[in-house]
Amino acid sequence: MNQIIIHVDMDAFYASVEMRDNPALRGKPLIIGSLPHERGVVATCSYAARKFGVHSAMNIKEAYRLCPDGVYMHPNFEKYRAISAQLHDIWNTYATASEYIALDEAYLDVTKKAGTWEKACDFARTIKERTRNELGLTCSIGIAYCKSAAKIASEEKKPDGYFEIPTAEAFVRLIEDRDIRVLYTVGEKTAEKLHSFGIHTVRDMQQRREDVLRLLGKQGQWLTQLAFGEDDRKVSPYKPEDAKSISRELTFQADTEDYGFLRDVLFLLSMSVERRAKRVNLYGEGVTLKLTYSDMKT
Fold first, then answer.
1. pLDDT-based confidence at 241, cuts 50/70/90?
2. What pTM, to 2 d.p., does this model score?
3. Is 105 a catalytic site residue?
4. Exactly one of 99, 105, 176, 241 is catalytic; which is it?
5. How many CB atoms lie within 10 A of CB 223?
6. What does CATH list as the number for 5-13+78-171?
7. What does the domain layout of the chain look like in residue ranges?
8. Which CA distances in Å does 51 have to 9, 67, 110, 127, 147?
């Protein structure tokens, strides 16, 4: 039997938790992250805020310009992590392997536990039902024959969505006339490069396979396979010891030229990185220091 993968993605997780815990926030444009007078970005926001053009990772000043009447809050990560652990307990009931992408998102391999496509779909619906009934939250679920298709399926009917992509043929039919950005690993720079050569859609990529291979090399090989629905990646549980890098950073709320203060902060950040590395028996082969100046050059 081929793989059966469920992708679970909580809907505006931090904002949904806050609205659940404070019903007065429901329906309001809620923005979680920094406050408008601070430096920082949007961690997440409610769907009411997204109607104003606010989105995750947006500079908080821009978010405030777009949505001055929004409700702005700092995140409560301790609370979100506790709820995430409850979600994992639900998800792991149905999976033989779980790959957590963040506190609110995961791939679940249900192939062996389900045994059939129909039973796997029952699992997916039960996860949605338990998430709503036990935690008062909604999630969007995609179920598919591979990880890439499951991810796209979960995005298809957001929020509170459910979508199935049972075969590679169904996957290709769904995406072949969409922009190439729909494909996993195609970011802004890769898309610009392909667009400049007239490759705009997944269908273009299918028809100009050799051009894609010549332009992108190994990545092009992966993308052309994916354009035809081929993705045999397994659900791989995250292991801290597999990390390629460990980092800590801090955004100051005001510019500073106090080098003694900066040295102290750098020392504390370095200690934090060291503790995390020791915890999983890692050591570094190089050190990178990132600085952002008052003109926002990094």
1. confident
2. 0.85
3. yes
4. 105
5. 23
6. 3.30.70.270
7. 5-13+78-171, 14-76, 178-227, 250-298
8. 20, 9, 35, 28, 29
